[in-house]
Amino acid sequence: MAKVSVSTSMPVNPAKAWATASDLSRFGEWLALHEGWRGDVPSEIKTGTVLTSVVAVKGLRNRITWSVTAYDPPNGITLSGEGKAGVKALLELKLKPEGDGATGELDVEFSGPGMFGPISAAVGKTLQGDLRRSLDRLVELID
Prior knowledge:
The protein has helices spanning 14-21, 27-30, 117-142; strands at 2-10, 34-38, 50-57, 60-72, 76-83, 88-98, 101-111. It is an alpha+beta fold.
């Protein structure tokens, strides 16, 4: 299993960050592992919403069918997904007030056959960089 968590300070309050971060049509602008949605993207998100995307990590692509398992604007969203070859994924975005701004945190987990030992370590290392870049891009978009 590869499990990674990164966080960063944001110069805006959680509500302003949420407006960009929760806009599914903009995921490709900031979320490094998101290659695109497959099928229609709902204009409204709620717990139970199901959608499919292509995710790429370390050059490996997988189609993931996501379910929104937690939705708490402007504090966070959790997506739980299943992909090809038994891959399971979890993506959680949390926004917390911090002074005049916010702390943004991304937690991502991939598990399934083949996700252990050196492969898991390599995926985890790549995810660390991808998620750091993702939060940096998100801050640029909402700044």
